[in-house]
Design goal:
Layout: H1 8-14, H2 16-26, H3 38-41, E1 47-49, E2 55-57, H4 72-91
Antiparallel strand pairs: 1-2
Helix pairs in contact: 1-2, 1-4, 2-4
């Protein structure tokens, strides 16, 4: 995998729970959650905890941006991107720096 771009499948082998959680959030409507009920059950902001236990913003001022029905796909993309860089990067340190989150 050195010099290859890591994929969600690579991350799934390291952190299945995270990948599964993001997939469930992406398709939460299949569980009966609607845009009207989403904010009463989901209380996250655009932050995530890295593999070394740092809480980081997924985008500028992320701690002040609530995850909503409308932006949940972007949230999932960013969480997985950061996790790919931090988790898979630990196992494969020569990854492209293009996965780094820019602020």
């Amino acid at each position: 995998m050195v010099n290859d771009t890591p994929t969600t499948e690579d991350l799934e082998g390291i952190d299945y729970s995270l990948v599964n959680s993001m997939e469930l959030l992406r398709t939460i409507e299949t569980t009966g959650v609607t845009s009207e009920t989403f904010s009463s059950i989901f209380f996250e902001t655009f932050t995530t905890t890295t593999s070394d236990d740092r809480v980081i913003d997924l985008k500028p001022n992320g701690a002040a941006i609530e995850v909503t029905w409308e932006n949940r796909q972007e949230y999932c993309d960013l969480v997985l991107q950061v996790s790919l860089y931090s988790c898979v990067g630990i196992h494969c340190p020569n990854l492209s720096t293009s996965l780094a989150v820019s602020h």
